[in-house]
Amino acid sequence: MILITGGAGYIGSNSVIEFLKNGYDVVIVDNLSTGHIQIVERLKNTDFEGKIKDFFEIDLKNKNDLEKVFEKYDFEAVIHFAAASLVGESVKEPQKYYHNNVFGTLNLLDCIIKYKVKNLVFSSTAATYGNPISDLIDENHVQKPINPYGNTKLAIEYMIKDYAHAYNFNYMIFRYFNVIGANKEVITGEWHDIETHLVPNILKADEEKVFSLFGDDYDTKDGTCVRDYIDVVDLARAHRLAFEYIKNGKSDIVNLGTKDGKTVKEIFNICEKVLDKKIPLKICERREGDPAKLVANSARSKEILNWENKTPLEESIKNAYRWEQERKKL
Ligand code: UFG
């Protein structure tokens, strides 16, 4: 049995599918603050080999509730996605981020050691690196976050390493770069009440809601920011591979990226091509806190897990668009 926290959210729900498809049974914990009950229902109705054994609408901040889950089931692994993850919001409301992410994970770690769970996969972020000092960012790059969101994820990385060392469990810490796309069955996808991410904002744009491109005066090839985009289904696969890797008594920290950066304009152009239409665009001021370029050195994921992003950008964007149409019906 695998416990997936945040399994009603974007990346968590895609990972639920990955585990179910590979024959694992799953329990989901989600407080539904940003996840959606409709997604849980859709996941329950899938016909994959593995099954969703239970769903708990609980908050990781509530340790008593959490303990009941660990009392009821014996988990082979915890795959931990549940977190508040908006960079801008974290600057305005750090309290929410420290309580939710750091305190919530502390409760989870306490359960992991109390109930002797042997494996943990944690979703950390490229935001823990802060402003890059090298062209490609490898796992040994200095970690100096520039916002509270990144600080909370870095604090959790320390907590996991210290707990694992003292209490003896295996872990994988993944530092994701920019996640896009949806599964081809469009069971689930990106669905945020406040949408800040690039691809869904481009895909949602119309004459009334023109897409705002934040800054075209960066020191990059076309003046817009460069990011490293990976597909959510590939990302989900990495989590299963990580579990199968660490359960043999290993722990590691791995970037999930492609080492092939794309500018905002390039992504915009691919979206126009995929949708086969002109998307209304306005160039705006830079968004506060955006580094010009964030691209992973992705060698380690290949070396350790034989993982690479396989989905071409066009396909990720096509699936994201198909999901966007599906989501409107929910
Ligand atoms: N952008 C726009 N317009 C939009 C949205 C985004 O121009 O409406 C631009 C941004 O300015 C940035 C790029 O598109 O240059 C990517 O922005 P996203 O918000 O999609 O992604 P970020 O790179 O800011 O953030 C991602 C994750 C965060 C994580 C961060 C770490 O979503 O959770 O990477 O680097 F913290």
What does this protein look like?
- The protein has helices spanning 10-21, 37-44, 63-72, 87-92, 94-114, 148-167, 198-204, 232-246, 264-275, 299-305, 313-328, and strands at residues 2-5, 26-29, 52-56, 77-80, 119-125, 170-176, 178-180, 211-214, 226-227, 229-231, 252-256, 262-263, 281-284, 293-294.
- The chain is an alpha/beta fold and 330 residues long.
- Strands 3-2-1-4-5-6-11 form a 7-stranded parallel β-sheet, with helices on both faces. Strands 12-9-14 form a 3-stranded mixed β-sheet. Strands 7-10 form a two-stranded parallel sheet.
- Helix 2 links the parallel strand 2 and strand 3 (52-56).
- Helix 5 packs parallel to helix 6.
- The radius of gyration is 19 Å and the shape is globular.
- The chain starts with a strand and ends with a helix.
- The model has no long low-confidence stretch (mean pLDDT 97).
- Bound molecules: uridine-5'-diphosphate-4-deoxy-4-fluoro-alpha-D-galactose.
- Uridine-5'-diphosphate-4-deoxy-4-fluoro-alpha-D-galactose binds next to helix 7 and strand 8.
Q: What hetero molecules are in the model?
A: uridine-5'-diphosphate-4-deoxy-4-fluoro-alpha-D-galactose
Q: What Rg is obtained from the alpha carbons, in whole angstroms?
A: 19 Å
Q: What characteristic shape results from the CA principal axes?
A: globular
Q: Average pLDDT value? A: 97
Please tally the helical runs, counting DSSP H or I stretches of 4 or more residues.
Answer: 11
Order of helices and strands: EHEHEHEHHEHEEHEEEHEEHEEHH
The major pleated sheet works out as: 7 strands, parallel
Which structural class fits the helix and strand makeup? alpha/beta
Q: Helix content range of the residues, please?
A: 40-55%
For the biggest β-sheet, the strand order reads 3-2-1-4-5-6-11
Distance between the termini: 29 Å
Number of beta strands: 14
